[in-house]
Specification:
- The chain has about 650 residues and is of the alpha+beta class.
- It contains 13 helices and 35 strands.
- It is a single-pass type I membrane protein.
């Protein structure tokens, strides 16, 4: 089992287990090989048997209640993970798109006045979407929306409240409303046609509609709508844009949408003048939480607005609706196939301290790695795609936790239960153990000493209120303090009963000395010219310096006739350091004449300044010359004009005479 390190490192087995697996060395510099907390391979080299090495291993236990097929598309459905901190654990999630899968369709229609031509085609929707050539969209439901019943969205004049349509419109026109739930999801096609056929158009004042209010109520009113355990699809059809969160302020509605169901007994949304329109983010969160996929069936003039909206709402698509909604069945069928062929695997409710990532194996050698969610597109029916999910724990969980992995828009999920391995599963305690010299209890690889004894193996006897464990450790501290910042035995030995047992080549009362940590020169201790004593070099005769690197002799600087360094330098460490103007091993060679680069640079600067001044003077003279010539031409022209006027005046006077 792992052994423990010093008091400045892992003091208990639990702390050792929490060390990350990628740490290269668990031991501090100078710690002995006898330390218990180490890498497994290091413990094996110390002849620790399998029964002695405690190394909790991550584990995965899978239980799939239902195999894939017969409407089940996702497996497994339950996983139990045991994780070590910092050790990623991976498992595989498989999804196979079912050939036939039940679909709930709710049709949400804009009944503002501009949609009057579309209502006739929608009345046949229930029968057509259930025909053999289309996707299986049974059961189906129906709801409609116009706008909030408040100024400036709807006229509140009494006559207009009763009949908001334009004068001269002869067909029935119902009062405006924000959202009305008309028909609960049903497989009765005739009931669908009967309910829809009774619907009439309405009207509002401004162009945007209250579609967001309607979407929110359809998503959260689960029982009223009748959503079942099937793929849920909401078809939103309109020929205009939508009101957003904040637009309610125009009518004095400031309270944010609460995301709750507010339908009265008649299916009307009765809090439309209390709560503002929901935001895009709020809608996206609610639709995802309730596994609802959204199809925007909109006309050409506003399709770009809805495409931008769809990018912010996962599992939503946009289809081009004809002006009279004649292509609505084909649009729904194609949009459903597009939605069902896009698989998004995501997680929810992940507890703090856990990280989740995905590798998506989508077939045809398509692989995406390190994603925040699994994603595959263009998945065919009966095609299986696999996702490798990696879970990593960065800290210990206080208790067993769980989170959900699910495919967006499908009521199937994988529940992952996680527990972290942050403690040691040790054997039973052994009292008066021989491991503790019979003076303590041996548990989880460590001795808990009886009164009167201390030490790693309870080998030291103590006197009450005198030789405590802390007092004995103080004797091993170089600073003679019990500060946790001071390493025992200088970090180079073990404190046994108040005395330091030094490791390796360390020595001294507190293991403060060694003969290998002196300065080096030419990769040799004390340059090979001295002896290392307690971290300091004691140099041999004729050598000096921190690493004994400097010779005190001068024989290498001496010349036969010219003295030391030819009197042109100084001898340092038996080498000549020449005065300026000379070089060579004995400073015998003069340097070539030398010109200070500063003088050259200064000369260049002066020449440059002079040239720049001359150029500026020339430019100035040219400008003066140009100006002079321009003034001269102007003067000559004015003079010619004066002469011409004088001749004309003379001719005129002569004619008068």
């Amino acid at each position: 089992m792992p052994l423990y390190s010093s008091r400045n490192f892992q003091a208990i087995c639990q702390s050792c287990v929490l060390l990350t697996s990628d740490l290269q060395d668990f031991l501090a510099q100078g710690e002995p090989d006898e330390r218990r907390c180490d890498r497994e391979e290091a413990l094996r080299k110390r002849h620790c048997s399998d029964g002695q090495v405690l190394n909790p291993q991550p584990a995965i236990r899978s239980r799939a209640e239902e195999p894939m097929g017969n409407g089940v598309q996702l497996e497994p459905q339950n996983l139990h993970l045991k994780l070590r901190v910092g050790m990623p654990q991976s498992f595989e999630v498989r999804f196979r798109r079912a050939e036939v899968y039940p679909i709930d369709l709710y049709y949400l229609m804009d009944l503002s006045f501009s949609m009057k031509d579309d209502l006739k085609n929608i009345r046949n929707l229930g029968r057509e979407v259930s025909s053999p050539h289309s996707v299986s969209l049974s059961p189906s439901g129906f709801g409609s929306f116009v706008d909030k019943v408040a100024v400036p969205y709807v006229s509140t004049v009494e006559a207009k409240l009763a009949n908001p349509c334009i004068e001269g419109y002869k067909n029935p026109c119902q009062p405006a409303f924000s959202f009305k739930h008309v028909l609960k999801l049903t497989e009765d096609v005739e009931e669908f046609e009967r309910k829809v056929s009774k619907q009439s158009i309405s009207s509002n004042l401004d162009n945007p509609e209250s579609g967001f209010d309607a979407i929110m109520q359809v998503a959260v009113c689960q029982d009223d709508i009748g959503w079942g355990n099937a793929t849920r699809i909401l078809v939103y059809t309109s020929d205009d844009i939508f009101h957003l969160a904040g637009d309610g302020k125009l009518a004095g509605i400031y309270q944010p949408n609460d995301g709750k169901c507010h339908l009265n007994s008649n299916g009307l949304y009765n809090k439309d003048t209390v709560y503002d329109y929901p935001s895009v983010g709020h809608l996206s969160q609610v639709l995802s939480a309730n596994n609802i996929r959204l199809i925007f069936a909109v006309t050409d003039q506003h399709i770009q607005n809805y495409e931008a909206l769809s990018e912010m709402i996962p599992q939503s698509v946009v289809g081009l609706l004809e002006d009279d909604s004649s292509n609505v069945v084909q649009l729904i069928s194609e949009a459903c196939n597009n939605l069902l062929s896009s698989i998004l695997l995501e997680h929810r409710d992940v507890p703090p301290g856990l990280g989740v990532s995905y590798n998506s194996h989508c077939g045809d050698d398509r692989l995406a790695q390190g994603q925040d969610r699994g994603e595959c597109s263009d998945v065919r029916t009966n095609q299986q795609v696999n996702f490798t999910v990696t879970v990593t724990s960065s800290s210990c969980l206080s208790k067993t936790e769980s989170f959900i992995i699910k495919v967006q828009g499908i009521n199937e999920e994988l529940r992952v239960t996680v527990e972290t391995l942050c403690d040691c599963d040790c054997q039973d305690s052994e009292e008066q153990s021989s491991q503790c010299h019979g003076n303590g209890t041996f548990h989880c690889g460590i001795c808990s000493c009886d009164s009167g004894h201390t030490g790693q193996r309870c080998e030291c006897e103590t006197q009450p209120d005198k030789d405590t464990s802390l007092a004995l450790e103080t004797l091993c501290s170089p600073a003679q303090t019990n500060s946790t910042g001071t390493p025992l035995c200088s970090g180079h030995g073990s404190c046994v009963c108040g005395q330091c047992i030094c490791w390796g080549q360390h020595r001294g009362q507190h293991c403060q000395c060694d003969d290998i940590s002196c300065n080096r020169h030419n990769n040799m201790i004390c340059g090979g010219n001295g002896r290392c004593d307690c971290g300091n070099c004691e140099c041999f005769h004729n050598y000096t310096g921190p690493a004994c690197e400097c010779s005190t002799l001068t024989d290498q600087c001496q010349t036969s006739n010219d003295g030391i360094c030819s009197h042109r330098g100084q001898c340092e460490c038996n080498e000549c350091h020449c005065h300026p103007g000379f070089f060579g091993s004995h400073c015998t060679k003069p340097l070539a004449p030398w010109i200070d680069p500063w003088i050259i640079n200064m000369g260049k600067a002066v020449v440059g300044i002079v040239l720049l001044g001359v150029i500026m003077i020339i430019i100035y003279r040219l400008m003066l010359e140009v100006s002079y010539q321009r003034e001269r031409r102007s003067f000559l022209k004015d003079k010619e004009n004066i002469c011409w006027e004088d001749v004309s005046i003379r001719k005129e006077r002569k004619g008068q005479l």
